[in-house]
Amino acid sequence: MTSLRAPRIDPNTLPGRPCSAAAALEIVGDRWSLLAVREVMFGNRRFGEIARNTGAPRDRLAARLKALVEAGVLERRQYQDSPARWDYHLTPAGVALAPVLEALLQWGDEWAVDTPPITLLHHDHPLRGAWICAECGETVHRRDLRRRMNVPGWDVAGPVAD
Question: Are 84 and 90 spatial neighbours (Cβ–Cβ below 8 Å)?
Answer without folding.
Answer: no
